Amino acid sequence: MENNRLYSPKYIKEILSKYGFKFSKSLGQNFLIDGNIVRKIAEKADITDEDCVLEIGPGIGTLTEELALRAKKVLAIELDKDLLPILDETLGKYNNVEIVHGDVLKVDLEKLIEEKLDNKPVKVVANLPYYVTTPIITKLMESDLNLDSIVVMVQKEVAERMEAKPGGKDYGSLSVFVNFYSLPEIVINVPKTVFMPQPKIDSAVIKLNIKKDLPDVDKDKFFQIVKAAFSKRRKTLLNALSTYGFNIDKKTIKETLEKLNIKPEIRAENLSVEDFIKISKSLPPLDI
Predict the structure, then answer these.
(1) What mean pLDDT do residues 140-156 have?
(2) What is the C-alpha to C-alpha distance for residues 102 and 257, in angstroms, rounded to an integer?
(3) What pLDDT was estimated at residue 4?
(4) Average pLDDT estimate for 27-39
(5) What is the rounded distance in angstroms from the CA atom of residue 163 to the CA atom of residue 188?
(6) With 60 as the cut, is the pLDDT of residue 3 above it?
(7) Which residues of 171-196 are buried (b: 16+ CB within 10 A; e: fewer)?
(8) CATH tag for 2-210 (out of 3.40.50.150, 3.40.50.12780, 3.40.630.30, 3.40.50.1970)
């Protein structure tokens, strides 16, 4: 049975040879060839026969197959048209899989999920191309989607930045963004050896459990302040905010921080999401 599964290196080579497929560096294509990792991803995503799954970049269907064996329905978005005939063959026997040709960054996800998954709660599971990890995560978080969780394979250092807590060297604006919308946890560390072709760096699978109730704050203002605070990491919070271009004078910013018991000389990497929320709610409206 194992030899017939899509993660068999022998089978992958045969199917790619049959269709004359060439890996695209520009699309960041690296296919999983380790059954243990494939199964672990599906397990960590807690996929059951009641779940609707959105997969991004199915490749030849290695992970898609495992998801199909567990889920109610899998909707997979694939950008590379050369993979479509391969996916027709590799996943043809699964009647709960639907492949959509398109760019996830351009597709209307709200409309697609409404049409294909009846707007039911969705679990996102994907082996993401490294070069578009952050834009895809950003779109998923900011879209009005009924998401339960996001479980994605990403570059290890990006996963560490997403999971990072205040005070650590990896903590930055991406950490604040991800922690605003979700509770992140690295669930699997993945060596580069389990991919074809083999990338130069190791990966990690991170699970983002989506928060059902987001903080009651002006999101645009909140993220402008976060961006400003981290724009010059070596500067104090007071200097970073007062030189960013906001229409608020330094004295007002200093007084606001002191009222919140936040030291003006603190640096952004030592502030929690809750700290940024308090600052956002307390500062006057931004005009930049």
Answers:
(1) 95
(2) 46
(3) 65
(4) 87
(5) 13
(6) no
(7) bbbbbbbbbbbbebeebbebeeebbb
(8) 3.40.50.150
